[in-house]
Design a protein that fits this description.
By secondary structure, the chain is of the alpha+beta class. The protein has six helices and eleven strands. A seven-stranded antiparallel beta sheet has the order 1-9-7-11-6-5-4. Strands 2-3 form a two-stranded antiparallel ribbon. Strands 8-10 form a two-stranded antiparallel ribbon. A hairpin with a 5-residue loop joins strand 2 and strand 3. The radius of gyration is 19 Å and the shape is globular.
């Protein structure tokens, strides 16, 4: 049974359990997020500079334009082409791990966690914040020109025979306002139940007319989106025209203390020298 804490309401917990996600408005101070936004800009630039200096890319930016004005990306899509510090999930859409980085020291999480410490444990069926395990901390960056991601879940189920409570969830903290133009995160409510046996369970829900339509919450700086690792979701296209109009989210992945995610980042590092090193 879900346990209600002082900072969470029964309605919020029931919404998360039913839909697989929860939006909380105006929960983080914009002043706290100013520091994270400044850090993200610098760290983004430093990451691509390091890739270039160590010979992993042919130019020190995430993309450049060819003679016809088309974007040419420095990295290729997918785990096998990327690094434990950065993965391009789809063209122009990146996840930059801060737990695996030796570069700039990131701001403290204390102020963010203080606001979330009473909300997250009940969602994971845990008694207190001290039981929660942070398994990933990253920046998710969608650049202008990135297209809709394929639908996906970030992790699987622990049992194929029955639905179990949430064991891992993502906390998305926008560092800029998330609009229809720069690409919100779209979710399929309730699909954390269906991804256990995706095709037959989705078809069954459609036949019973219980399959819900996708939703794409628009978030302001200070809002938070929390979602079950198993729910279907995707990043929408960034339709902005200016190269500087990136949509950056801070992602904090939290889990029950025994859980480890070993599938979302490769082992090789941007700090290793390529044969094509530029230094």
């Amino acid at each position: 049974m879900l346990k209600v804490s002082e900072k969470s309401s029964l309605a919020e917990l029931e919404t998360f359990e039913r839909d697989g996600f929860l939006v909380l408005h105006d929960i983080i101070s914009p002043l706290v997020l100013d520091e994270w936004r400044d850090f993200s800009t610098i760290h983004w630039q430093e990451t691509f500079q390091t890739l270039y200096e160590n010979g992993h890319t042919s130019f020190p930016n995430h993309c450049r334009h060819d003679d016809d004005g088309n974007r040419v990306y420095a990295l290729n899509v997918g785990m096998k082409h990327c690094f434990r510090e950065i993965v391009m999930r789809s063209p122009g859409r990146y996840e930059i791990s801060l737990l695996h980085s030796n570069a700039s020291k990131h701001p403290s999480l204390d102020s963010l966690m203080e606001r979330l410490s009473g909300i997250i444990p009940p969602l994971l069926y845990l008694d207190s914040w001290s039981d929660v395990h942070i398994i990933n901390l990253s920046l998710i960056v969608s650049t202008p020109g990135s297209i809709d991601q394929p639908w996906h879940a970030d992790g699987g189920h622990l049992s194929v025979s029955k639905h179990l409570p949430c064991h891992c969830l993502n906390v998305f903290v926008p560092l800029v306002n998330v609009t229809e133009q720069n690409g919100p995160t779209e979710l399929r409510p309730g699909t954390h139940f269906h991804t256990r046996h995706l095709v037959p369970m989705m078809l069954s829900a459609k036949a019973r007319k219980t399959l819900q339509s996708p939703v794409a919450p628009l978030l302001a700086v200070g809002d938070v989106l929390l979602f079950d690792y198993r729910v279907l979701h995707r990043g929408k296209a960034n339709q902005c025209q200016r190269d500087g109009d990136v949509r950056t989210l801070l992602c904090i992945t939290v889990a029950q203390p025994w859980f480890k995610d070993i599938v979302n980042f490769p082992k090789r590092s941007i700090e290793s020298k390529s044969e094509n090193s530029n230094i």
